[in-house]
Design a protein that fits this description.
The N and C termini lie far apart (49 Å). By secondary structure, the chain is mainly α. Helix 4 packs parallel to helix 8, helix 7 packs across helix 10 and helix 8 runs antiparallel to helix 9. The protein contains ten helices and no strands.
Length: 250
């Protein structure tokens, strides 16, 4: 009789063990990634050093350029080239901890929503990229402040930087997952990432250049560029979220 009661109690006990919600899974995974990175600081430090080196190379390349307003017309492109190449370095390292000792396989064996895994990794990549931008963007203008003075609307470049960073983190997380188990993943990620992110990059460069140069068409150019960039973010992040389960299961 006691054995029967014990057996009957086990299903009832297991029925009360509910699976955590998708948001709870997302929060747990995000906190795990943030704690792991802030403990080691591998990715942020690597991205920060790389950004500084790119700025130094820019300084050498532009050392004989004449100061003038023309610099503002190319500064938006230079700034976004810095962001894209720095983000590639971070995305290549985003799954380095999970790839060691089969941790990625263990994570996928757990009863986790694959969408929560994608969103947690995307938001952690976004946080790290924004941290580096907070350091790199002011440093960029500190190096090249003698070339030209940005317009009064220059502070608005925070908006395209944020919108562009969200898109880079979203599509970059999907592509880094695809290439993490491949040979020559660094080159392969760049080959996949740059063409896919080109529409977003074009829109963000247009918006950033417009607010730096100033003029009568700033509002119109900024509005059109941000609508295109935001539309890209919504479509690509939604597609990445839907496809992520197929990608990690392949």
């Amino acid at each position: 009789m006691a054995k029967e009661k014990k057996l009957s109690a086990e299903p009832a006990r297991s029925a009360t063990c509910e699976r955590p919600s998708t948001f709870a899974q997302f929060k747990t995974l995000l906190v795990k990634d943030l704690k792991q990175e802030f403990r080691t600081k591998d990715m942020v430090v690597s991205m920060g050093i790389y950004a500084v080196l790119v700025i130094v190379v820019y300084g050498v390349a532009l050392s004989f350029a004449k100061p003038g307003a023309e610099f503002l017309e190319v500064s938006g492109g230079l700034l976004w080239a810095l962001v894209v190449f720095t983000s590639l370095l971070g995305l290549n390292r985003s799954f380095s901890h999970e790839s060691e000792n089969g941790c990625m396989e263990g994570l996928l064996l757990a009863p986790l929503d694959r969408g929560a895994v994608f969103l947690a990794k995307m938001f952690s990549n976004l946080v790290f990229l924004l941290l580096v931008e907070v350091i790199a963007v002011p440093l960029f203008w500190l190096f090249f402040s003698s070339y030209a003075t940005p317009a009064d609307t220059a502070w608005l470049m925070v908006v395209p930087l944020l919108v562009g960073s969200i898109g880079i983190a979203g599509i970059g997380t999907l592509l880094s997952t695809i290439t993490t188990r491949t040979r020559g993943k660094d080159v392969l990620l760049a080959l996949l990432f740059v063409p896919v992110v080109f529409p977003l990059l074009y829109a963000c460069v247009s918006a950033t250049t417009a607010v730096l140069v100033g003029g009568d068409v700033v509002a119109e150019t900024l509005r059109i560029s941000l609508v295109l960039a935001a539309g890209y973010d919504v479509i690509m992040i939604l597609a990445s979220w839907i496809l992520y389960e197929f990608v990690v299961s392949a």
